[in-house]
Automatic annotation (TrEMBL):
This is Ig-like domain-containing protein. The keyword Repressor does not apply. Residues 28-113 form the Ig-like domain. GO terms for biological process: cell surface receptor signaling pathway; immune system process. PROSITE patterns: IG_LIKE. It comes from Nothobranchius furzeri (Turquoise killifish). CDD domains: IgV. Pfam families: V-set. Keywords: Immunity, Signal.
């Protein structure tokens, strides 16, 4: 079976000034790690947040958030995902072992807080 992952971007606090760059939709094999990257152009937004939106729902669930030096996970997401940062403007979300339950749209966001 294949896992479908999509990425979209959001920004908070100064949305009009930020340009996000994101991946195209991904279809990956099960039980493999997959990385979704996010990059924006405003280094004054040090916090990057990652959200998951499952099919047929309007709500998003916060996976975690972090800065260049520290990452924080919500609930059990720390066992399924890994957040990394290359810089203040670039980060990644890695699904450690993709399975059908990870099929969703993933959003990255930037914030000053």
């Amino acid at each position: 079976r294949r896992v479908r992952l999509f990425q979209r971007t959001r920004c908070y606090n100064a949305c009009l000034a930020v340009t996000f760059h994101h991946n195209s939709p991904l279809i990956v094999a099960e039980n493999r790690p997959v990385q979704i990257t996010c990059r924006h152009d405003d280094s004054t937004l040090p916090q990057m947040l990652w959200y998951q939106q499952k099919q047929d729902t309007n709500s998003m669930t916060l996976i975690g958030y972090g800065y260049e030096t520290s990452q924080n996970y919500e609930g059990q997401f720390g066992k399924q995902f890994k957040l990394t940062r290359k810089s203040a403007v670039e980060g990644a979300l890695t699904v450690l072992k993709a399975n059908v339950s990870h099929s969703a749209v993933y959003f990255c966001a930037a914030s000053t807080q």
